[in-house]
Specification:
Strand content: 15-25%
Number of helices: 9
Helix content: 25-40%
Structural class: alpha+beta
Largest sheet: 5 strands, mixed
Number of strands: 16
Shape: elongated
């Protein structure tokens, strides 16, 4: 390779060894030049290599995809994030996962995601992508990436505890904390009657379970019906979901502290 040197924007011909500035990622050097649409370059600070076009190189628009550029933590690497300008499903899932954990505005709007994090392996898009394509349900329309069915209360997205589940399974664990106030899950206080009301959502419809003198009695009614319903939904999806998810649902315990 010839001696490297920085190139001004005025020079028309790009040569191997030329060094260019980028807008946000430091300097890079040209390693190979096939034509103006295919140049191989390497970022000097990180040694990350990629291909680019001459016009992007001159404008400083080449990105170092080895750096955490998505929500300050996500590394795209050489993963294919778009096809014909459209984001791939795995990239959309990855970006949404990072948003839930590291976008302050999102966690303020949805407090259940406060203190949630992503494993180092999942912060690297190629690793997340590879994991996705090995999972049951990844290619199913309307299925969701879940982090806390296999491990109740889990706050870390990682390859060991995440799974894809259909919407019906995912909605089993949606809680309406604003309605219950300080009451246990499935219970709310009716001031007018000085009683505690228990209700549960079954197959998309709210079902009234009765009025009770204590929150504990109301919760017990909810717990019995809810656990039976979870098992019923698990059996419905048994042949389609990950076996680990099925077993977790069958063994799920509704607790008064949920």
């Amino acid at each position: 390779m010839k001696d490297t040197k920085e190139v001004g924007k005025s020079r028309t011909k790009i040569q191997i060894g030329d060094i260019f500035d980028t807008n946000n990622y430091g300097k890079l050097v040209v390693l190979e030049y096939e034509n103006t649409s295919n140049l191989k370059v390497k970022f000097i600070d990180t040694a990350y290599e990629t291909t680019t076009r001459a016009n992007q190189l001159r404008k400083g628009e080449v990105k170092d995809r080895s750096l955490p550029s998505v929500y300050g933590v996500g590394i795209i690497g050489n993963g294919i994030a778009r096809v014909c300008g459209v984001e791939t499903r795995d990239y959309q899932l990855w970006k949404s996962m990072l948003c839930r954990c590291y976008d302050e505005k999102y966690s303020n709007k949805y407090p259940t995601y406060k203190d949630c994090t992503v494993s180092d392996n999942f912060k690297y898009f190629p690793s997340f992508k590879e994991w996705c394509h090995r999972q049951i349900g990844f290619d199913q329309e309307g299925w969701h990436l879940d982090k806390d069915i296999l491990v109740k209360g889990n706050k870390v997205y990682s390859e060991d505890v995440c799974a894809f589940v259909p919407s019906e399974v995912n909605s089993l664990f949606i809680k309406r904390d604003s309605l219950r106030g300080d009451c246990p899950v499935g219970v709310r206080y009716r001031k007018r009657f000085d009683k505690f009301e228990s209700q549960v959502t079954l197959y998309g419809k709210m079902v009234y379970l009765g009025t009770f003198n204590t929150p504990e009695e109301a919760f017990c009614a909810y717990k019995e019906v809810k656990e039976a319903y979870i098992k019923d939904v698990a059996d419905k999806w048994k042949d389609q979901i990950d076996l680990r998810v099925y077993e977790a649902l069958m063994n799920y315990v509704v607790e008064i502290t949920d």
